């Protein structure tokens, strides 16, 4: 069988690429192949409202079930692509079936990075990547009191916030000397550590896990490198993802911590694109010009837009300002831009008020903002990131002054308005 466009991975990026192709007038045949059993759904609520039991799965669907038929998109669920023959433009599925493509969009995201130490595969050890992962956790929750979260990144911290609100005793174990060290500056890390502790979560920094302790095949504790053992009924591992690109590597692509793509999301194989979490690209808003992967809904959607425009003959290079959010307790963090490579930060407001922003700059120019319960800074900050604006730093640090009142900012915001 042949399809004009085959999209592998029916997550955010893949589902969005399929629907945008139709929206932009593409009339050829489209297959969207996903290994999960569910219709395409949103992942962010998995560590937030879905885990908390505040949102049902139906509310996570990206499109109603009828959409895919109506748009003549051949949605194939519970099927995994295991081989790519780039020269023949042919895919092999786990069933052994083959499917030929005109153009291939690889949108497979990543698999949760697993611990490599003894005990990593015990029952009661969880990652938070898909619905099945979280359903397994929810199933075990009634018999769970002590939860150890390994990794103080966004997903681990969100899960910790939900589970402590549910009355569990939660400890976060972080190998570095602060949480969120990979993605945020020190002020934000210290703020979230304080908030979690205030909510009863124990946050332990500079902690190395040696192995997981089991009894009868089930996890009962985590042994640390210092010889101590912490008891646990459940362990959540949130230490990042590994891009799901093995079939493309076997087809001849080089591993660049993902599929390296150009500004049109083209990979180095003929008629192959990659988008979303698995795509490594040079981002125009990154101060460090090295290929990076962005793990965000924004990037998945915007790269889907780039590839669908390219295929429909309206090519436009990727030029979206990165943004991201995280919900923990009653705190809404909104991030715009990429702080990688910053040489200075300016704090707007007092973290003790639980409403403040951190502005990241390089050589005086704004790279990114982390805004906590501070929507206005986030909205106006986007234009500053886009323009690489160099603000007056004294005015910028004056939180009584709205960002728009900082000299020069109003003009930049107006200029960037659509
Ligand atoms: P995915 O959505 O992961 O989809 C990839 C799909 O491809 C998966 O269904 C996978 O099973 C499938 N697949 C993989 N290999 C194959 C194969 N060989 N054959 C067929 N199918 C395959 N982002 C934010 O911006 N804000 C947030 O607050 C936020 N919270 C998050 C919370 C959680 C718990 C998680 C897991 C992610 C969160 N993210 C958040 C990140 C965001 O969800 C991802 O960036 C986004 O889902 C990436 O979309 P994607 O299509 O690249 O990958």
Write a concise synopsis of the structure shown.
The protein is α/β, with parallel strands linked by helices.
Ligands and ions found: flavin-adenine dinucleotide
- Count the beta strands: 24
Q: Give the class from helix and strand content and strand pairing.
A: alpha/beta
Radius of gyration: 22 Å
The rounded distance between the terminal residues' Cα atoms is: 43 Å
Question: Total helix count?
Answer: 11
Mean pLDDT: 97
In one word, what is the shape? Answer: globular
Helix residue percentage? 10-25%
Strand content: 25-35%
Which spans have pLDDT < 50 for at least 5 consecutive residues? none
- Major β-sheet, in short? 7 strands, mixed
Structural overview:
The chain is α/β, with parallel strands linked by helices. It contains 11 helices and 24 strands. Strands 1, 2, 3, 4, 5, 6 and 18 form a 7-stranded mixed sheet that branches. Helix 1 runs parallel beside helix 8 (297-311) and helix 9 (375-387) crosses helix 11. The two termini are 43 Å apart. The site of flavin-adenine dinucleotide (FAD) has 34 residues, from helix 1, helix 8 and strand 20.
């Amino acid at each position: 069988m042949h399809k004009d466009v085959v999209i592998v991975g029916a997550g955010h990026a893949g589902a969005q690429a399929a629907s945008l192709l139709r929206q932009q007038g593409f009339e050829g045949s489209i297959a969207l192949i996903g290994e999960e059993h569910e219709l395409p759904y949103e992942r962010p609520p998995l560590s937030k409202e879905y885990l908390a039991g505040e949102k049902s799965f139906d509310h996570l669907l990206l499109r109603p079930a009828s959409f895919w038929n109506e748009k003549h998109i051949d949605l194939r669920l519970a099927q995994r692509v295991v081989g790519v023959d780039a020269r023949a433009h042919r895919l092999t599925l786990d069933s052994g079936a083959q499917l030929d493509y005109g153009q291939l969009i690889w949108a497979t995201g990543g698999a949760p990075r697993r611990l490599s130490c003894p005990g990593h595969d015990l029952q009661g050890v969880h990652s938070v990547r898909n619905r099945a992962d979280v359903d397994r956790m929810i199933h075990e929750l009634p018999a769970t009191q002590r939860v150890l979260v390994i990794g103080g990144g966004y997903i681990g911290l969100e899960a910790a916030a939900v589970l402590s609100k549910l009355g569990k005793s939660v400890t976060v174990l972080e190998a570095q000397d602060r949480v969120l060290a990979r993605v945020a500056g020190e002020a934000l890390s210290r703020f979230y550590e304080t908030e979690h502790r205030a909510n009863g979560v124990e946050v332990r920094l500079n902690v190395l896990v040696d192995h997981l302790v089991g009894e009868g095949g089930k996890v009962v504790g985590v042994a640390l490198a210092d010889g101590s053992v912490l008891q646990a009924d459940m362990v959540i591992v949130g230490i990042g993802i590994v891009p799901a690109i093995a079939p493309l590597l076997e087809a001849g692509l080089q591993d660049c911590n993902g599929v390296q793509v150009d500004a049109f999301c083209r990979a180095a194989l003929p008629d192959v694109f990659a988008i979303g979490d698995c795509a490594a690209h040079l981002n125009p808003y990154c101060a460090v010009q090295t290929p990076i992967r962005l793990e965000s809904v924004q990037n998945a959607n915007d790269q889907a837009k780039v590839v669908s425009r390219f295929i429909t003959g309206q090519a436009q290079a990727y030029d979206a300002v990165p943004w991201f959010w995280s919900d923990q307790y009653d705190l809404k963090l909104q991030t715009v831009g990429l702080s990688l490579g910053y040489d200075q930060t300016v704090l707007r407001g007092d973290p003790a008020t639980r409403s403040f922003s951190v502005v990241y700059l390089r050589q005086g120019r704004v790279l990114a903002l982390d805004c906590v319960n501070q929507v206005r800074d986030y909205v106006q900050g986007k234009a500053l990131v886009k323009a690489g604006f160099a603000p007056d730093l004294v005015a910028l640090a004056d939180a009584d002054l709205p960002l728009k009142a900082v000299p020069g900012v109003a003009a930049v915001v107006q200029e960037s308005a659509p």
